[in-house]
Amino acid sequence: MDALTIRNLTKTYANGIRALKGIDLSVEEGDFYALLGPNGAGKTTAIGIISSLVNKTGGTVGIFGHDIDKELEAAKACLGIVPQEVNLNLWETVGNTVANQAGYYGLSGALRQERVEKYLRALRLWDRRDDNARSLSGGMKRRLMIARALVHEPRLLILDEPTAGVDIEIRRSMWDFLREINEAGTTIILTTHYLEEAESLCRNIAIIDGGRIIEDARMSEVLRRLHREVFVLSLKRELTEAPVLRGFETRLRPDCELEVEKGPETDMNELFRQLRDRGIEVASLRNKANRLEEMFMHLVERKGGDA
Amino acid sequence: MNVALNLVALKTIIRKEMVRVLRIWVQTIVPPAITMTLYFIIFGNLIGRRIGAMDGFDYMQYIAPGLIMMSVITNSYGNVVSSFFGAKFGRHVEEMLVAPMSYATIIIGHVAGGVLRGLLVGALVTVIALFFTRLQVAHPFVMISVVLLSSVVFSLAGFINAVFARKFDDISIVPTFVLTPLTYLGGVFYSISLLPEFWQTVSRANPILYMVNAFRYGILGVSDIDIGHAYTILAAFVVLLFSACMLLMKRGVGIRE
After folding, report:
1. What is the pLDDT of residues A145-169, one digit of tens each?
2. Same domain, A129 and A192
3. Predicted ipTM > 0.85
4. Residues in A 55-74 with any Cβ partner in B closer than 8 A
5. Which of residues 117-176 of A touch B (CB under 8 A)?
6. How many CA atoms lie within 13 A of B192 on its CB side?
């Protein structure tokens, strides 16, 4: 069964802006799915409609088979949302924030207390349960929003840029936590501007731009279709000019570095053979940019060029 | 609709509202107590002695039910409008909107919060009134039912105000320019029989007149209006305002784009 099914979803705001121009999307149960796109692409509008915080103009949305037009409450019961912007009651305590949310989903008594403790501990906030939400750091507030979204143990969790502004250590621990709950069966849809995050976590990906889905495929397939990759080689000796290598484009960089762009028709063995023939020794090598980032820019730019 | 889920959700909203009222008691409980004490001292005691009896009661006794009702009305309204608008402004209203409870549960929960604060302040003002005068309850059922219904009406009105409000100014406009004048002109401090015929007729268009007089009838046993009319008007307002709240929530006015 699909965790989420979207058909021909459209949204035109009162000011005439067409945020969504008919998107179709299917997310399988158990998937870890990335929804990417530049700012203003329509990601947050789509999530707003799924969570019934934004009225749609047209189309259908189904959550585990529950149409939000016909079975809204059943659909909502399956869904947990972590919004992009902090929407906590900053005067409420951390414990009450999660306990109240549990109550809104009908959890009461010992089960509610058990869940509150479980998720506050999992998100490392248990020690702060009696503090007001306003006293938390930015990263803690994001973790509190995740605990709040999970307290009713939703089958589908949507996270809208959950790690924005979070330091690397906490971001990595949040990745581990999200992997764990996904492995335990929760379907996850993630939007993020950290493409490394999407590449590391997600199995499937959709890219949305200008209110349309411009890519929807398996992550591995998208990355395979990447036409060009750019590597930065750290050389043992400085060169005076960029070497001419057959099948590659090269550019000299400062600090004894050489930038090499390769297409799908060449491979790395060929690159190293040609470098060795020219007596160029390589100390180390790295990707210039995240592979997904390159793919993303390529798709978005191509779309911009087509328009 | 999942009844058990909605009952738990309703209890959660009411508890949250009461925690809020008690957390900010300096804003919610103390000011009406001070204001009403001043009313009793100035209008009831100092000026009231010169006014003499009204409808067979000394002036302090006469105005006490009106002042209690005034505090219930303003606090019920104020609680819901500030709580729900605050939730909208801070966007934590989304916590409730994404949950699978019905819109009726959200409305009733906030109205219950308004009623509880209204009754809490009303009880406090009653205790203060007893320091200044003697009150005997003539018709307990009328007193309780009228104060409850009036509190529900103004809590629902506060909810509608909060739904439409876009900035903090919008939640003070109605209390300042509508609620306060209607309350003062609603027979809190006088019997409308003192007014010329024309102004008596105009006063009868003010719904607060019916609430104040029905409540006064419950305590003192005297009223300028027919109690049956008061119940009809109160019931009509409850149905009308609750329906309006439901419609606004379903359409997402002020809460969904």
Report:
1. 999 999 999 999 999 988 877 788 8
2. yes
3. yes
4. 55, 72-74
5. 148
6. 22
